[in-house]
Design goal:
Shape: elongated
Distance between the termini: 76 Å
Largest sheet: 5 strands, mixed
Number of helices: 21
Helix content: 40-55%
Number of strands: 12
Radius of gyration: 27 Å
Amino acid sequence: MTSAPNQSKLDQLCHTRDNAGIETGLQLLVFFICAALVVSRRPDALFNPQFFAEDGAIWFPQAYLSGWFTSLFHSRSGYFQTLPRLVASIALLVPFRFAPLVMNLIGITLQVLPVNLLLSARCRNWAPLFPRILMAILYLALPNTMELDASIEEGQWHLALLACILVLACPPAARSWRIVDIAVILLSGLSGPFGVILLPIALVFWWFRRERWRLIVLATIGVSAIIQLSALLTTASATRSHATLGATPKLFIQLLAGQVYLAAILGESGVQIHRRLIVLAAAAVSGTLMVTYCFLKARLEWKLLIAFCALVFAASLKSPMASFTVPQWQALRGASGIRYWFFPMLGFVWALTWCATTSGNSFFRFAGAAGLLVMCVGITNDWRYPPSTDFHFQRYAQQFAYATPGTLVTIPIVPDGWTMRLHKKNSACHTLPVGSVDQPARGAHVSDSVPVTGWVTASEPIRRLSIYVDRTLTESVTPNVGRPDVDSLYPHSPDKNKGWRTLIDVSKIAPGPHEIEVRALEADGCEADIAIVPVERSR
């Protein structure tokens, strides 16, 4: 790595007043142009917005039911994910039908902001303006990134890139911008494990630059890293997948060459083009050679960016959440377009950019330019992502708007098979009872008598459980009766977290599909659905 004395001339770039960035007046225009490019890859994110994955299944329902502040302190998958929870809380400020649009707009904004920063004078120590413009274009057009486009669900990955560039950029001159830097870096650190990975990068950068500002940044990242490490150590074993890793050298070559190098150049189809190991091995060696050359010869900022991308890739392969059943690396081999490939692909593509525009070696300049030229194939193939299945969210939003308090509305969301379960709140109730039906299973075939079992929990004692078949009251039961398996888990809670069991008669209903609905009534009068289970009445 370049020594500190040899960096002195490069350090002076941060203190010059040259015109090495897009003027402030043009930044807003750049932002809207880039936002339009992002939307053009997935127009339905703006023109038919729907909740996506955890956005609708977890973040928004928890913010709606628990309150925005309380939901921020819940960890998931082993760490805190503050960004999507905070954005879900912001979406509560608008009518429910506009909530997915607000979340997507914030996701698009976070996706574009790294471009504005990269093209500003604060990144003049990276490279001249033209290479940075090329870097920005390739970032926006990066193939094999379908999961990350125009969404807040994976917005923390774009936020992590923004935080990394801020760490390696020239210090902001104004105090207000320094506050913004700290806020962005802290939010990124509290929105995933990125602070833990960025910590050694910031430490090395401070060691070589020895500026007070770098020390403040380092301390900020350190705080977020400590918080996330504590969450990982206390919750990861219970919340992360326990499927075997299944790591082998062959799978590593397939992932590195197929999902990173070839997919970055040829698009998602590049993952499927070559199955021969010799071809993949050649691609892995060639791509790694280009990245290594950039790492050895480029400025300190480039070295640390590549190191950050490599560390994210290593962490992703060490502890992925790709499957709960099959070995993780086997699941990753066929998982194109997911978040785990974003940083290694970006590091590779930006290394090609440096080689093509800045390298003094003619071989690497030619190889980098050739790689970027072939990348036009991947950009063309992957530019327009297929629209998501239209689940007619606006229809369900209207149903939710007219639902009575306590009603459980089940809304299908993207991707296929995901659902959002949202209780209509009552303004007089601080919380609503929640629970689950363990039996019968969804889609079960039932006969004359149906055993119905489950559990319920609430902030107030549960007075009564009412069971409906097709909205007709069939049975009323009292919780904490007949479920020793649940009761044993909560021995000191006589009226909360209790199980129940009953038997209902469906002999008089017609054969075909029906719904079993369970509603819980609290002692304070608050009532809510805890489950709606579709079943099939046998002939």
